[in-house]
């Protein structure tokens, strides 16, 4: 299934089943907002552009709970600006690590100049898209300091991530995490009356 078709179906599922999650989705990003992510440093993976031209992330970020964290693991998709800022932060971390002779513990583990963050959780876990040349180009990697996951391949592509998210939401089929644990989506109603997907 093409990514655009997956995103359309995901929209419909969220709108019908968890309208508060659906309501957090931002309008499409502009071409200039998308171009600013890399500013010609490297070519942006086309799937990121497709996603941002559909929705520019969500309007809520890094919450403990509540609408917007519908990606497995409770990830909140970030907007183009946060992708850009995250990439620049990684550039700075890489530069500092090289100055401090600490690159082996940073480059390709917690940061890389060709990594673009696409989501985060309230505890700081990140999903990033790898833009390095090689077998993981375009893959979605996970960084989770608590679990000592350093750039582990989570999905082979952004399309695969959204496809598995959609299938799990539609069928209740579990998603296997990077450490082999099964998680399932549940619809939870908060005390303020809002409902959202929670992965347990």
Give a brief description.
The chain has helices spanning 3-17, 19-24, 31-35, 46-54, 80-99, 158-171; strands at 76-77, 115-120, 126-130, 140-144, 149-155, 175-176, 182-183, 185-189, 195-199.
Number of helices: 6
What is the number of beta strands?
A: 9
The rounded distance between the terminal residues' Cα atoms is: 27 Å
Physical arrangement of strands within the biggest beta sheet? 1-2-3-4-5
Rounded to the nearest angstrom, the radius of gyration is 16 Å
Report the major sheet.
5 strands, antiparallel
* Topology order in helix (H) and strand (E) letters: HHHHEHEEEEHEEEE
Q: Stretches where pLDDT falls below 50 for ≥5 residues? A: none
Beta-strand portion reads 15-25%
Mean pLDDT across all amino acids: 95
The portion of residues assigned to helices is 25-40%
Write a structural description.
The chain is of the alpha+beta class and 200 residues long. It has helices spanning 3-17, 19-24, 31-35, 46-54, 80-99, 158-171, and strands at residues 76-77, 115-120, 126-130, 140-144, 149-155, 175-176, 182-183, 185-189, 195-199. The strands form three sheets. The chain has a five-stranded antiparallel beta sheet with strand order 1-2-3-4-5. The chain has a two-stranded antiparallel ribbon with strand order 6-7. Helix 1 runs parallel beside helix 6 (158-171). The mean pLDDT is 95.
